[in-house]
Automatic annotation (TrEMBL):
Keywords, ordered alphabetically: Cell membrane, Membrane, Phosphotransferase system, Sugar transport, Transmembrane, Transmembrane helix, Transport
Record's keyword annotation contains rRNA-binding: no
Cited function: The phosphoenolpyruvate-dependent sugar phosphotransferase system (sugar PTS), a major carbohydrate active transport system, catalyzes the phosphorylation of incoming sugar substrates concomitantly with their translocation across the cell membrane. The enzyme II UlaABC PTS system is involved in ascorbate transport.
Name of protein: Ascorbate-specific PTS system EIIC component
InterPro entries to which the protein is assigned, alphabetical: Ascorbate-PTS_EIIC, PTS_sugar-sp_permease
Native organism: Dielma fastidiosa
GO cellular component, one term: plasma membrane
Membrane topology: Multi-pass membrane protein
Pfam name, any one: EIIC-GAT
Record family assignment: Belongs to the UlaA family.
A Gene Ontology biological process term: phosphoenolpyruvate-dependent sugar phosphotransferase system
Subunit structure: Homodimer.
Transmembrane portions of the chain: 12-31, 38-59, 102-123, 132-153, 159-176, 237-255, 267-292, 336-356, 388-411, 431-458
């Protein structure tokens, strides 16, 4: 029996594709779906995850020669302000797979986070948690990413016991974090009956509180006329290719052709330097597209099982959905304003780091640059008009780069590990960044327990402040 369990663990449970696939398979069967549908869900989940690993491997192989050349010539490192670049590193050979047991531990943490979120909402009469976090891809992403980052800064956390506790913490954060977006989102949507379950939940709450100080809501972004060509930046493929060409293309020009030829064996003698640069930068977009295609495939099946179970078990709860849903309740100019001025804020911060001779060069990444800043701009515009949308986006862009710098240097300083990126969404830059520091200095169990108790207590205070309207969504439904 022990040999069988050992074989099962080493061949199935340590493979994220199979582990998540089994979760989906069981979830679909629990919903009384036919066996063939559950099997199809398992296959699509596994295939999607394997596609993700191909994309992550491609990003790493494209990125590495540039970083090596930069370090050789200027004694400088580079990293990307982007979630999926870091995910690529996490699922690479030097990520989770280099820590014995870490792959299966992080998958268990994800499973625990789902269960805890469900339990807190079921017990909402006492917990006051109204929102069910149905964006499974985000929950899976930040649970596994942050679990891995905690492993790097606190080796004492590398065990199943703490992993379960951390999964519970992520489940508490999913419930409490999405819960504090309800009132701001109801105001934005006119009472549409959903919350936001993403990685800028604290950012939404904070923006909703401060945006009114910067301007008036009637002075809206929709009054600004933007050039038509800016619409191309709504396309992830185009935006990634352009951003990577500007920044990594510029880096390769500074590094020079001889250094790149010496480092990168794929740079053949017959290839022109300019063609090499363009090809490299476009490949960033290619592998990002592959990675996201894999994510979309396995997440579609995960969401199907997750939402189906939630509808059967937790009636009357409010769904916490992807931040992109909020885009439907704002003028099309608002997300673009968030992207443009968030980018402007990032450039200011990057320039500042270069002026002060930072040992780390940071490159903007599309995902947090667009989605984080666009979401914050939407909520800022609702409360404080265009001035608030512009100022909040600039400040968040600055914040994204500066916290990325601090946390990448922190992980290297205390864990001796060089991150290729930082997942620079607002919640990761505040709650999870602070949590990593606390866990490193206080210890894994003490740090996690402090966070869980504090979150549940703060949620009770939030309920008391909004008691009169807290359960209005049930009456409306």
């Amino acid at each position: 029996m022990f040999t069988f369990l050992q074989m099962l663990s080493s061949n199935i449970l340590t493979q994220p594709a199979y582990f998540i696939g089994i979760m989906v398979f069981i979830g679909l069967l629990a919903m009384k779906k036919p066996f063939h549908e559950a099997l199809a869900g398992f296959i699509k989940t596994a295939v999607g995850f394997f596609i993700l690993t191909i994309g992550s491997g491609g990003l790493t192989s494209t990125f590495k020669p540039i970083i090596d050349a930069l370090g050789t010539k200027f004694q400088m490192e580079a990293a990307v302000v982007d979630t999926y670049f870091l995910m690529g590193q996490m699922y690479g050979d030097t990520g989770l797979f280099s820590i014995e047991g870490a792959v299966v531990w992080t998958m268990f943490a994800f499973a625990v986070s789902i269960a805890v979120n469900f339990i807190l909402v079921i017990l909402n009469k006492w917990t006051r948690c109204r929102t069910l976090y149905v964006t499974g891809h985000t929950l899976q992403g930040y649970t596994t990413l942050m679990m891995w980052l905690v492993y790097l800064v606190c080796p004492a956390a590398r065990n199943m016991g703490f992993t379960i506790l951390f999964g519970a913490l992520c489940g508490v954060w999913a419930a409490v974090g999405s819960n504090i977006t309800v009132e701001a989102t109801q105001n934005l949507t006119g009472g549409a009956g959903f919350a936001i379950g993403h990685q800028e939940m604290l950012g939404i709450w904070f923006t909703d509180k401060i945006a009114g100080f910067f301007g008036k809501p009637e002075d809206s972004v929709e009054n600004i006329q933007l050039p038509g060509f800016l619409s191309i930046f709504k396309d992830n493929v185009v935006s990634t290719a352009i951003l990577m060409t500007i920044f990594f293309g510029g880096l390769m020009l500074v590094i020079g052709e001889p250094a790149m030829r010496e480092i990168d064996s794929t740079f053949t003698a017959t290839t022109l330097f300019i063609v090499y640069i363009i090809t490299k930068c476009i490949y960033f977009s290619v592998y990002m597209y592959i990675l996201l295609a894999g994510v979309r495939m396995f997440v579609a099946e995960l969401m199907k099982a997750f939402e189906g179970i939630s509808q059967k078990l937790i009636k009357g709860s409010m769904p916490a959905v992807d931040c992109a849903v909020a885009f439907n309740y704002a003028h099309p100019n608002v997300p673009l304003i968030g992207f443009i001025f968030g980018f402007f804020g990032q450039i200011i911060a990057i320039a500042g780091l270069l002026i002060f001779k930072s040992p780390l060069f940071l490159v903007p990444g599309f995902v947090p640059l667009f989605f984080d800043n666009a979401t914050i701009a939407i909520y800022a515009n609702k409360r404080g008009g265009k001035n608030a949308a512009i100022l909040c986006s600039i400040l968040n862009g600055l914040f994204q780069v500066l916290i990325s710098f601090v946390m990448i240097m922190f992980v290297k300083g205390v864990g001796g590990y060089s991150l290729s990126a930082w997942p620079a969404f607002f919640d990761n830059n505040t709650f999870f960044a602070g949590l990593m520091v606390v866990i490193h200095f206080v210890g894994p169990y003490g740090g996690a327990m402090i966070a869980i108790i504090a979150l549940l207590a703060l949620n009770q205070l939030y309920y008391r402040k909004h008691k009169a309207v807290y359960y209005n969504h049930i009456k409306e439904n």
